């Protein structure tokens, strides 16, 4: 899969000539940029174990992003371009090194802008002995075609479903089409991957985890997201692992968009109550005290 001359890897479909080195809407050009590759201990327990688990999730953070989330906790890499240019061969070596380090899975964070490189690296790593489940960690803003292109490569989709309101998606992520795009992508993920499968120790080997981060002042939209997820579960008949998150911290430009505080106990309780009412309880609900900055690792090119 070569880099495109007319890029449509993400829903922006900006048409950049990436093969000639032109940067797309996401910021990625003809190079592969990675900001960090290390064991990570702050994913859902079925991926990374407990916080003191010596193994954790083998997480690779890719530079740039197709979304423009004003509150992005990874903004140095998603918005500011922090990262190191490497080859697909080097990426394959990183995958294998994480496996040797004891990673429970290979966790690719915001990788779609580099899909051709990722597929090449996965092919090479698997030929050299990679056996870890591959987790695709995404903001949910994916085309159905990109999801399909990862059939046979991705074992676990770790996807966000951020908004139900197009207006809110436009305001906070410059993506009014986000709700429709995320729903279509999630439907394909569920169809493609199927119901959750765990190993004997309770670690997810295959399936879909759907995250939703509750935002301050937006509990009504969060409840609408949960209703969408419940509907998708009914319509597809495929169970998934819901993960309701309270860890919002006002990073980056959040305060400029009315998100200059953390979520209140009252707001989060309203969201949790809706999840319980809808039966979205076979997963994770963060404690209100989880709004801490330690979830964001230093993007210091470790392991790259």
TrEMBL record:
Its cofactor is [4Fe-4S] cluster. CDD domains: Radical_SAM (cd01335). It comes from the Bacteria. Keywords: Iron, Iron-sulfur, Metal-binding, S-adenosyl-L-methionine. GO terms for molecular function: catalytic activity; iron-sulfur cluster binding; metal ion binding. Signal peptide: none annotated. Binds 1 [4Fe-4S] cluster. The cluster is coordinated with 3 cysteines and an exchangeable S-adenosyl-L-methionine. The keyword Glycosyltransferase does not apply. The keyword S-adenosyl-L-methionine applies. [4Fe-4S] cluster binds at residues 65, 69, 72. PANTHER family: FORMATE LYASE ACTIVATING ENZYME, PUTATIVE (AFU_ORTHOLOGUE AFUA_2G15630)-RELATED. This is Radical SAM protein.
């Amino acid at each position: 899969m070569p880099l495109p001359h007319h890029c449509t890897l993400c829903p922006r479909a900006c048409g950049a000539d990436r093969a000639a080195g032109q940067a797309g809407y996401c910021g990625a050009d003809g190079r592969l940029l990675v900001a960090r590759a290390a064991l990570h201990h702050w994913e859902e327990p079925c991926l990374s174990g407990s916080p003191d688990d010596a193994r954790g999730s083998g997480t690779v953070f890719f530079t740039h992003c197709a979304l423009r989330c004003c509150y992005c906790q990874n903004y140095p890499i998603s918005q500011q371009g922090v990262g190191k240019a490497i080859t697909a061969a080097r990426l394959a070596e990183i995958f294998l090194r994480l496996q040797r380090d004891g990673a429970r899975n290979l966790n690719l964070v915001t990788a779609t802008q580099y899909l051709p490189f990722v597929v090449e690296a996965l092919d090479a790593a698997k030929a050299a002995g990679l056996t870890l489940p591959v987790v695709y960690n995404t903001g949910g803003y994916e085309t159905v075609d990109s999801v399909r292109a990862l059939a046979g490569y991705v074992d676990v989709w770790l996807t966000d479903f951020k908004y139900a309101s197009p207006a809110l998606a436009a305001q906070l992520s410059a993506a009014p089409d986000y709700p429709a795009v995320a729903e279509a992508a999630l439907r394909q993920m569920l169809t493609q991957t199927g119901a959750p499968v765990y190993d004997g120790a309770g670690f997810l080997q295959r399936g879909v985890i759907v995250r939703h981060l509750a935002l301050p002042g937006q509990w009504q939209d969060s409840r609408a997201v949960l209703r969408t997820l419940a509907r998708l579960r009914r319509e597809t008949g495929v169970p998934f692992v819901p993960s309701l998150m309270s860890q919002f911290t006002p990073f980056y430009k959040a305060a400029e968009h009315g998100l200059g505080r953390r979520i209140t106990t009252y707001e989060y309780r309203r969201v949790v109550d809706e999840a319980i009412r809808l039966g979205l309880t076979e997963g994770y609900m963060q404690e209100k005290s989880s709004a801490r900055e330690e979830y964001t690792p230093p993007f210091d090119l470790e392991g790259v």
